[in-house]
Amino acid sequence: MRTLLLASLGCLFLAVTFAFPASDKEKGIILNLKNGEICAVSMQCKSSCCQRNTGTSIPRCAPLSAENQKCSKLSVYATYYHCKCERGLKCKGDWSVGGTVTNTNFGICEDRNGKTNATS
Amino acid sequence: MSQFWILGLLGCLLGAAYAAEVCYSDLGCFKDDMPWAGTTERPITRLPWSPEKIGTRFLLYTRQNPDAFQEIKADAAILKASNYNGDRMTRFIIHGFFDKGDENWLIDMCKTMLTVEDVNCICVDWRKGGLSLYTQSANNIRVVGAQVAQMIEVFQDVYRQKPSMVHVIGHSLGAHAAGEVGRRIQKLGRITGLDPAEPYFQGCSATVRLDPSDAMFVDVIHTDILPFIPYVGKGMSQAVGHIDFYPNGGEHMPGCDKNIASTIVDIDGLWEGTRDFVACNHLRSYKYYNESIVSPKGFTGYPCSNQDVFDSGKCFPCADQACPIMGHYADTFHVPNGQSKLKFHLNTGEAVPFSRYRYKVSVNLDGSRSVSGIMKIALYGEQGNTRQYTVHSGRLIPGKTYEVFVDAETDIGEVTRMKFLWNNNIINPLHPKLGAARIELQRGVDRKVYQFCGKKMVGEDVLQTLDPCGLQ
């Protein structure tokens, strides 16, 4: 009797545990979101960049752009097609009114201090 | 009602007393005595299903047909009519519990392999056998293993292909199925266990589970080693190969702790997201393997007993020829004679690309005054540059040396320059300036040391460039 009971309990446990895995740490739902988590505005992300690949794709938190990577200039939209640059870098590229409206003022991250270093 | 219970109990007792046996024509007989059942690890007794009920299928991909599979059987005529070539290496991929052989990951793995090598890649589909109670599936793999073994025997008969030309990759329960293949085939070339299943296998006799004796070379990737009870860790913590990799310590994989909505609404689609929701850590094993096929250098394993020691840096850098590559190219590693269960650690990324390149960085800080803030460094090399990595967060004291390990996400080749940056969130009217006087960098893979020297100190949020010391 006990074996059967144990067996059926075991099966139940297996079924339940495979359906609902244990969650480990407390997760940010609205603020302090990790990279890869779904966001609406950049302020929600730890990285402070909420990025989407196309106008219709789901935005997710993403790391800031490193030097020589593609970037967006600061925009009024709170999401970006390419993230802003890391600290110490500026997003060098053309700026246009049309680009501001369509959120496509892209550039390449460059060292703000680039020139002084090149001469030193 | 009570009769059923009594009958059931009797059946149980009888089952324990008299081992049952089933025989399937060419595959031989399967018993349910020790060690297959009746042990503490395997309390519930089940006999494997028949091959017909499991419905194992072999889906062949080759360079002639990389996009659509050919279904093959253990039959000379069918094999000869297919694109199978006995002169090539053969790799089987076996899925695990609640999975299927034409699931994207198996097909993707075959396709990725075919881009780098000319092989016969066979996805083994036993979905019906795996869509059962776990205890039943854990026994059904015995038949699946026997069928793969039968297949390899046919290769031997038809093409004179040696078993050493065969590599069996198995995920979860599939890893133990691969173990069963190796038990039946002498001198099987290689088995790769991708997070072998823990319940009903961990602590069991070597006959039952994957074991170094199953093939000439057994490599294992552990990604979900926490105990099944109560953490629902689905993989084994026990080392069962010649070499065992524990990426990120094997317990929690980065990128697997996202919130529920973000996990399920995955970049790779809802189905992949749901799979990750159920078993993210467990499934990471094949994702790492898959990526290792195309970027092997990013998965260098460091010999280490556990993750704490690894994090402390005691296992860094690699001694000569001591670091194998996790995943596809693990077989390039020379295992010392007679050794097995060697443990290796490494860190991976949280999303594709998972590959990482480990460096040790020591920053000797220079500055006008000590401030509290964060200092970061970035690496620049012949093949590009990395993002900024935090060296220290807190009090930044000039004259002090700060040491940190960096798992860079790009392979930059030879390091040519470094950049240093510091910042904090407090406005300081004294405009303190800090800089790195000297940065020593050591690459883990080949122990190569780079020295970089900086002269000018910089204000907050300004990058300081450091050149190799000799060049100044």
From TrEMBL, chain A:
SMART domains: COLIPASE. Coiled coil: none annotated. It is found in: Secreted. It comes from the Eukaryota. GO terms for cellular component: extracellular region. PROSITE patterns: COLIPASE_1, COLIPASE_2. This is Colipase. The lineage of its organism: Eukaryota, Metazoa, Chordata, Craniata, Vertebrata.
